[in-house]
Amino acid sequence: MDFQPVKASDKEIIDKYMKKANSRSCDMSFAAVYLWKDFYLLEYTVCEDMLIFRTTEDGSSYSFPIGDASPEKALLALEAHCKENEEPLKLHCVYRENEAWLEEHMPGKFEIEFDRDSADYIYECEKLIGLKGKKFHGKKNHVNKFIKTYDWAYEKITDDNIDDCLAMLYKWKEINCEPGNIEKHAEVCVSENALREREFLGLKGGLIRADGEVVAFAVGEQINEDTLVVHIEKAFSEVPGAYAIINQQFLVHEADGLKYVNREDDVGEPGLRKAKLSYHPEFLVEKGFARLV
């Protein structure tokens, strides 16, 4: 199997297979792959009309084949490839529907384990916009206080305001990134590249100004027929309500006609998990790993 590094010129072919998958997962996006390719050392190939990614960040691991064809031939080819290279076959980005397929078509062949830390949180856009009812009372108060406190505005991110947005990101980095935190620094790098390459990647962004200063921004895209994914969201926690207002307003302006929003995973951070659960997700997109027995 011939795996190649992910390049900008690969967008069309990768998009083709990811759209066939029609998934709500935040990982089913060329933008996500392209922005994180260097951190995860991502490569890809097309085998038996299915897209497969390989990461060599921590030993070789392969994505469950992506597309609308049967994955059986691609999985058998992967098995032969790993045997030839004397390496174990490990799969990542295994979803519940993939688990069901494996249990039906390859029973007992793979050991599957799901990782709660990597599950995507899916919400109804209408609920996060309206913030109605007792369970959203606190969120509504944060938004209302922000609106009353500041002379504020929402702006789509364009070439005219991107420098202000980048300046806010760099200031956020100074406040939040410790020198040795590799993942946080990678996150900032990814955020910067997403802003600079948003048009090529098909991303849309929005920012919040408070008294003229950028205090929050978000970047995302429509991932399938009914779901928006928010890949990046940054706000100054020192500005009360900044996170709450960008959460709401990005959906008001960028999720028109869409039912769901994917706000990605919590990476196992207790504070982040608490925050995501406090918005009452409709369901999770669970992701797991499979190992050839």
TrEMBL record:
The residue ranges of the Phosphatidylglycerol lysyltransferase C-terminal domain are 22-283
The record's InterPro entries line, in alphabetical order, gives:
Acyl_CoA_acyltransferase (IPR016181), LPG_synthase_C (IPR024320), UCP018688 (IPR016732)
Q: Which domain of life is it from?
A: Bacteria
Under the heading PANTHER family, the entry gives: DUF2156 DOMAIN-CONTAINING PROTEIN, PHOSPHATIDYLGLYCEROL LYSYLTRANSFERASE C-TERMINAL DOMAIN-CONTAINING PROTEIN
Protein name per the record: DUF2156 domain-containing protein
Q: Which SUPFAM superfamilies match?
A: Acyl-CoA N-acyltransferases (Nat) (SSF55729)
